[in-house]
Automatic annotation (TrEMBL):
GO terms for biological process, alphabetical: termination of RNA polymerase III transcription
The protein, known as: DNA-directed RNA polymerase subunit
Residues annotated for Zn(2+) 2 binding in this entry: C70, C73, C98, C101
Signal sequence range: 1-18
Protein residues bound to Zn(2+) 1: C4, C7, C26, C29
Amino acid sequence: MWFCPICANLLMVDGTTGGTTSSFICSTCPYKNSIASKRRNRIKLKSKKLDDVLGGAGAWENVDKTSAVCPQCAHGEAFFMQIQIRSADEPMSVFYKCEKCSHQWCHR
């Protein structure tokens, strides 16, 4: 996608030219640029740092412990917290963190 350097709108390819060369035209201003060769640019976007939706390591500091079997190591105790992540008429989601291996899983 190419954008107009004057008004920043998306440029269109002009198909009305009779020759083999086409041009980029802007639909809102008089900008026009002939296409002499194939153009290809790739811009690698920076990836955004993801936030921990459960609040990070600090969210697990003051939680209760219950008997739950870890699906990864089969340990019998885990920390848990309940969070309302869906609409109010849906039940709360229960998040577990294994006491032994720190594996996290969810039960809805």
